[in-house]
Amino acid sequence: MYEDQTYDAILTRMLARVSDKVDKREGSLVFDALAAVAAELAQFYVELNINTTLSFADTATDEYLTRRTAEFGVNREEATKAQRKGEFFDSNGMPMDIPLGSRYGIGGLAYTALEQISTGVYILECETAGVVGNQQFGNLLPIIQVDGLARAELEDVLVPGEEEEENETLRTRYYEVVNEPSYGGKGYIYSILISSGVINWSKAIYAGNIVGGVGFIKVIGSYLYTVYYSSNGLSGYYECLQIASQTTYMTITTKQFYSNATAGYVMSNLVIVGTTFYFDGYAGTSTHNLYTFDLTTGNQISSITTSMTGTNYIDFVNNIYYKSDTAYILL
Questions:
Q1: What is the pTM of this model?
Q2: Is 2.40.128.630 the CATH classification of the domain at 184-330?
């Protein structure tokens, strides 16, 4: 972008701004003063060009690409450490136990004893991440003396070490996320600890695909209630889960509350009052269906069909509020 902003180009422009009545020849006071400034400006343009290149996902590399993709939740996969099998023998050639945490070297690499597999056989982890930990085989030397140890062997690769994800691989994954956003997928409920972002648990709630956006979810007491709909938009379901065990509550099983072979998406909202579960689904046309279920039995109490003539409500999120025997719907 700034390739033409060279030292000579900048100096020529600066000298052109100085009156010809002043001595501007090389070696003059004006020339030498402007030359120093032109050199600094040329370096500035070089760095500006580099920073511009590192600011965009298609040209960024290394740390800058990592930071750019992380803004969209695409994180670079870090290098991992190899885990190897190590065998240890005493002076009689018999397998012997070693201290966990003891360290052994081979070919400039160090391995730490992590876990015992059996007598004299241990899982060793390379202290250096990457594929280099997969490559060495043979005699190990203790970094700190281990009493009774006569011979140690580095053998099978149990978990191969991997290099940090390459720039182009990361860039490709980033483009897949930003250029092809997901509008549906398998139905899962996630419980996430907000302070750390750690997923406590997840549970699949539907074997097919959920499409058309988001279903609805509420937590009351120790139970979680959700409404979702199938990939073809023809069937809606509700489910009640016991949060502690992430299992379907014993008397509230998954219920299909709507099915229509010619309808569009089912959008819905839910309200729970006492032991009654209310929700609203629609057929992707002007027809709405108001449902009530008994939470204690899972049985449907009622289904009311209403028609809003002359309007097609596909792709409009709705909301519903119940008070006494009246349903208020926002479309």
A1: 0.49
A2: yes
